[in-house]
From TrEMBL:
<dbReference type="Pfam" id="PF01782">
    <property type="entry name" value="RimM"/>
</dbReference>
<dbReference type="GO" id="GO:0006364">
    <property type="term" value="P:rRNA processing"/>
</dbReference>
<keyword id="KW-0698">rRNA processing</keyword>
<keyword id="KW-0143">Chaperone</keyword>
<dbReference type="InterPro" id="IPR056792">
    <property type="entry name" value="PRC_RimM"/>
</dbReference>
<dbReference type="Pfam" id="PF24986">
    <property type="entry name" value="PRC_RimM"/>
</dbReference>
<dbReference type="GO" id="GO:0042274">
    <property type="term" value="P:ribosomal small subunit biogenesis"/>
</dbReference>
<protein>
    <recommendedName>
        <fullName>Ribosome maturation factor RimM</fullName>
    </recommendedName>
</protein>
<comment type="subunit">
    <text>Binds ribosomal protein uS19.</text>
</comment>
<dbReference type="InterPro" id="IPR036976">
    <property type="entry name" value="RimM_N_sf"/>
</dbReference>
<dbReference type="InterPro" id="IPR002676">
    <property type="entry name" value="RimM_N"/>
</dbReference>
<feature type="domain" description="Ribosome maturation factor RimM PRC barrel">
    <location>
        <begin position="107"/>
        <end position="177"/>
    </location>
</feature>
<dbReference type="InterPro" id="IPR011961">
    <property type="entry name" value="RimM"/>
</dbReference>
<dbReference type="GO" id="GO:0043022">
    <property type="term" value="F:ribosome binding"/>
</dbReference>
<comment type="function">
    <text>An accessory protein needed during the final step in the assembly of 30S ribosomal subunit, possibly for assembly of the head region. Essential for efficient processing of 16S rRNA. May be needed both before and after RbfA during the maturation of 16S rRNA. It has affinity for free ribosomal 30S subunits but not for 70S ribosomes.</text>
</comment>
<keyword id="KW-0690">Ribosome biogenesis</keyword>
<comment type="similarity">
    <text>Belongs to the RimM family.</text>
</comment>
């Protein structure tokens, strides 16, 4: 596969999925998106693949296939070439993401936020999110000394999550450190 060029790697790349393998015999790839709302994958015509170094690839076509996105990439013309990309991380520039609606957030924007409870106690920092099937769950790393650090799991639902301030990098939750 030939890269779409050798442009400078954008600083705002966000990991949005990975190549799950080939789709069909004509070189299409199956992408396992990390979010159910992966519309940016369909809209953006340049992806960055990370397997043995980052390289930009041109997306000729992309569409939903069940819970996955299948795509035809320039320079990938057969099943073997597509299968060789299995496991490659797919990244796109953050500038291509559509603006979220009021009260909606991209998970990538929540990572790194300081988390405080309603009493003002710092519980830690958002290290990640996961989906348990019913709702997303915040993974909070407590700010305790290294030997006492632990992970808090807080449901990302209105009942527990209060104000989110992306600009000031903090959020308020209805949660106690000893839960």
């Amino acid at each position: 596969m030939e890269p779409a060029g050798n442009p400078q790697i954008p600083a705002d790349l966000v990991e949005v999925g990975h190549v799950g393998g080939a789709y069909g015999i004509r070189g299409w790839v199956r992408i396992k998106p990390y979010s159910a709302g992966a519309e940016a994958l369909l809209a953006v015509k340049e992806w960055w693949l990370d397997s043995s170094g980052s390289r930009e690839v041109k997306v000729l076509q992309a569409r939903w296939q069940g819970a996955d996105v299948v795509a035809c990439l320039a320079g990938v013309s057969d099943r073997d070439a597509a299968e060789a990309l299995r496991g490659a991380v797919v990244r796109i520039s953050r500038r291509h993401f559509p603006a979220p609606d009021e009260g909606e957030y991209y998970w990538v924007d929540l990572i790194g936020l300081a988390v405080f409870n309603r009493q003002g106690d710092c519980l830690g920092t958002v290290k990640g999110l996961m989906d348990n099937g019913a709702h997303p769950v915040l993974q909070i790393e407590t700010g305790m000394p290294e030997d006492k650090k632990r992970e808090l799991l807080i449901p990302f639902v209105e009942r527990h999550v209060g104000k989110i301030d992306i600009e000031n990098r903090k959020m308020t939750v209805d949660w106690e450190l000893d839960y």
